[in-house]
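Section 3.1: Structural characterization of target chains.
Under the original work plan, the team committed to producing a structural model for every single-chain target entering the pipeline before any wet-lab resources were allocated. The record below documents one such target. The sequence was received from the expression subgroup and is listed exactly as submitted; it comprises 151 residues.
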Amino acid sequence: MTTSSSGGDFLAKKSEVARLGKTLPKLESILIIEDETFDADRLRATLRVALGYEVAFRRASTLGSAIDLVLARQPDLIILDDLLKPSDTACSSIPFLRRANYLGPIIVVSGQATRVRKSELLSAGAIDVIHKDDVDSVRLTEALVRVFKGI
């Protein structure tokens, strides 16, 4: 059951995050690496709420196509699904993205964001890990503020 206090707290947090989001550097390109179309579209729509319509989004559904896109044009940010069909994981994908000379931040979205898994992903080179159930404009903006402001 939701109380008006928790709704008010959420709106206050969203307002604060929106204010902080305006201090982010201008992002021109974000690469979403996600094999499920619904999840990719959800991420894109949520990021549009947080960042506006000026950002160009590209999507790759496989690691191979992601590397091709990175080599063609370096994105400002990569949002990476933890499990890409048939057998790629974020932990195994991040080194390939780095070998393709991508040096920017990688945020992993995972349906298995346990403490252990989060630690593994951060050790592999992710800058942040978000549970798939927690993807909303507030959580993504918080992650972006941490990534680009060092908070």
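Residues 27-149 form a domain with the Rossmann fold fold (CATH 3.40.50.2300).
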